[in-house]
Write a structure and sequence with these properties.
Length: 552
């Protein structure tokens, strides 16, 4: 929501801004920007003046200038203040508004709050040259800016493929560059449990390892027979959460339940409705090692080696399942200061529950009319526990089935319908429909690498408006934001993640930050070309399809 001060600035700059917008290479596009005359050169030993609330931003700027340009700066030293960062406190509903002023003599960033100072610094950084040689000059500009949505997220699935701490930090850096403020960390999956839980060491000793994975597109052409493993220790998690916090990014952990639990079940088979029943694996797609373990060691549960959805889910009939998950959450909650815990809730087949006497008994005792109601019971029971610890739940839109848990936020992924229903029921919603937000889909019809399928060109990301016309103005307020999702079945290494993320994240950031009336594809494109130059300079991998298709 725009503050009245920003609105006044926006109106007064409107005409000028439209004439000069293309020269102001800030993405996501700010509320207003007016190019001035001349430039400011940031010289060696430039002074940065700041106060306590903006110290994190000052440190970020200092480190960036040093790392990228070899320019040292003095923070709150004796000399003159070339760059001033400060807060003029405002109580905006959505944090992050700022004013950036660059003249020939001085740079100032004034945030309405700490976040605002940080985003002003990101805009300042975007105006710096995309080369190391020559002067570090910033074109004169007046920018007034504020975000559209409070929740601006990107997700990363580290279950299908594991990514190490350094890459997770690099990913967080990319989110920060585009003023995102939520990193949704998908930590548990059928193909890998990725976070240390001290009470249950086998979750990582067994659940973070697999003996191979399918080759080619699902259902696969065979198995690569390459063992893989990986998890984050709790110390590493704390380090990543602090790294994100220094960039005003909240980390939301996702602990999947009741589906997508094969890795946990491989470690603790009693979580399954049928602990002695063999994990059904497509016969030609299993690694030799798993076949051997099944035959020689009588192992029946395995971390999955293929993709998809599996019937072996957490048993909803045993109290021990809930106790296990509560114990896991008792270790998760202190690691993450976020208000939210994501509990998954998606793609939970009801096959086993229909056959399981304990699940059926639970349904009878609680007068639950079907297995969807049992899923709702499961989520509601976990929500109560999570609420009792002072946290709220987010879940994928399947948590609507059988009745929404009372305080749940819904992540609408199977289109917008779930989000619309939830908003009408006055629940908060994060929009993330596959049609516009699934970055595992191909960048173009001529995709040059294997993807899960689907098509999501950058134009389609850019065109998205997350507040559906079907909602009234009042209901629309329940759409708290929008998120890009990166499911990594077909992203086995960091370069591929970068390829699928960039440049689509730049378009997504504008969906998240910029009001629709201020957005235009024509205006975005010159800035997009600049982003490609930046990626080259920063050594980032990206999808070049836009460049190839728009050569003229
Ligand atoms: C999902 O894509 N299964 C939430
Ligand atoms: Zn059961």
């Amino acid at each position: 929501m725009m503050t009245s001060r920003l609105f006044a600035i926006a109106v007064s700059f409107f005409l000028l801004a439209s004439a000069t917008a293309q020269e102001i290479l800030i993405t996501p596009k700010p509320v207003s920007g007016v190019a001035g005359k001349g430039m400011f050169v940031i010289k060696q030993n430039a002074g940065i003046k700041t106060a306590a609330g903006s110290m994190k931003s000052a440190t970020f700027l200092k480190d960036y200038l040093s790392k990228m340009y070899g320019v040292s700066t003095n923070v709150n030293g004796k000399g003159k203040a070339d760059i001033e960062l400060k807060i003029a406190a405002k109580n905006n509903a959505i944090k992050g508004a700022y004013h950036l002023s660059v003249t020939g003599k001085h740079i100032s960033v004034i945030g309405d709050d700490e976040e605002g100072v940080f985003y002003g610094v990101q805009s300042l950084i975007q105006l710096l040259p995309v080369q190391k040689t020559g002067t570090v000059s910033v074109p004169a500009v007046e920018v007034a800016d504020a975000p559209r949505f409070a929740y601006r997220g990107a997700h990363l699935d580290v279950g299908r493929h594991f990514f190490d701490v350094d890459f997770v930090k690099k990913y967080i850096d990319l989110l920060a560059m585009y003023k995102l403020n939520v990193f949704h960390w998908h930590l548990t999956e059928d193909q890998g449990w990725r976070i240390e839980i001290k009470k249950y060491p086998e979750l990582t000793q067994i659940g973070s390892k697999r003996n191979g994975e399918i080759t080619g597109h699902y259902p696969g052409q065979g198995n690569d027979n390459k063992p893989s493993s990986g998890y984050y220790t709790q110390e590493q998690v704390k380090d990543i959460v602090a790294y994100a916090a220094a960039r005003y990014i909240t980390v939301i952990p996702e602990i999947e339940m009741p589906g997508h639990g094969s890795a946990a079940i491989a470690a603790y088979p009693s979580l399954s409705c049928f602990p002695k029943r063999v994990t059904p694996l497509p016969i030609n797609m299993v690694s030799m090692e798993s076949v051997k373990q099944a035959q020689k060691e009588n192992r029946v549960k395995f971390v999955q080696e293929t993709w998809g959805v599996f019937d072996d889910v957490f048993c909803a009939g045993k109290d021990s399942t809930f106790i296990f998950l509560q114990n896991v959450l008792d270790e998760i909650i202190p690691l993450f200061p976020a208000k939210y815990i994501h509990i998954g809730g998606d793609e939970c087949p009801k096959t086993n529950w229909k056959q399981c006497p304990l699940c059926q008994k639970r349904m009878k005792e609680n007068s639950l009319k079907d297995e969807h109601a049992l899923q709702s019971y499961f989520i509601g029971r976990m929500e109560k526990y999570i609420n009792s610890k002072g946290k709220s739940i987010i879940g994928w839109d399947e948590i609507l089935e059988g009745g929404l848990a009372p305080n749940a936020t819904v992540m609408s992924w199977r289109g917008e319908q779930g989000g619309i229903e939830a908003a009408k029921q006055h629940h908060d919603v994060v929009m993330t429909p596959g049609s516009n937000c699934y970055f595992d889909h191909s960048n173009s019809k001529n995709e040059d690498s294997l993807t899960i399928g689907g098509l999501l060109p950058i134009e389609t990301v850019y065109s998205y408006n997350p507040v559906p016309a079907a909602l009234s103005a009042e209901e629309g307020k329940y759409i708290i934001g929008v998120q890009a999702n990166l499911w990594t079945e077909y992203m086995s290494n960091p370069a591929k993640v970068e390829y699928m993320l960039l440049p689509r994240l730049s378009a997504m950031s504008e969906v998240q930050w910029t009001a629709p009336e201020n957005k235009s594809w024509a205006d975005f494109q010159p800035r997009l070309l600049h982003e490609f130059k930046k990626y080259d300079w920063m050594g980032l991998n990206y999808c070049p399809v836009y460049l190839k298709e728009n050569k003229n």
